[in-house]
Predict the structure.
Amino acid sequence: MYQADIYATRTFLKELLERSTNFKAMEWLEKKLDLAAAGNDKDFYLAFSAAPRFVGKDKLQYTAADAEKAQLIRKGFDPSRWTTAQTARTLLVLSLPHDDAEAFLNKIETLFSTADMGELVALYAALPLLPHPELFIKRAAEGFRTNMGDVFEAVALDNPYPADYMEDDAWNNMVLKTLFVGKPIFRIYGIEKRRNAKLARILSDYAHERWAAGRPVSPELWRPIGPFIDDNILKDIEKLFSQPNELEQEAAALACAQSESTPAKELLNAHPQLKARVENGEITWSLIGEKNLSLN
């Protein structure tokens, strides 16, 4: 099973890397890619570890046109924050022979078991590109449990793999942890697609815990909740409307707008200015998330 055309992916990543590093670095990498493709495991593992020394760790030079190409290769694929070392490591992994699924899995698991933080970031971010994606579901769940912020971000944010493959409980825990560690919800791919009633209850309970402790609640918390507003959650939304924080009021309005609940629609009607801004597209979850991020 394939998530993306491996040849097209490698071509695209090489283009990004050639633009972002130098000829000497690419010459080194091409040799290592050939060795990896030939099944030379020792050279592959050494190259994977040594990549930053030879290709650097600069951010990729990434354009709007690149973003469009990335979506054609794999919906949700977003390497805009990748580094040259991360890209080189992904290319090395995608050069491995993969017809034998078990052998491919064993090599990737060997990498995971010995990886440092930078290597883990590259591996988790590469999950949506790997062949045999169903084999890495447990590994992705391990990434959700990590205490390393960069590693958690690599698997949870700007990564379509969790939305496409994780079961609801694992997905719900990932969303909750994203809020708990202060990462932006708007960078979770598929957050609307994977909304569910259990997640809505979990997030409402989490908001109550925060309020009881006198702590702020991210306005992004309410993004998956709109379609599941019931009598209990409606009280949460009423509380948001009464808050002095404009972003919380906007979140309340947007949640109500996405609900089929009659009381939620009536509540929104009671705030006509916010309702008009929602209808005019002036309030969106992405804008709320970006504004909230800039304030924290």
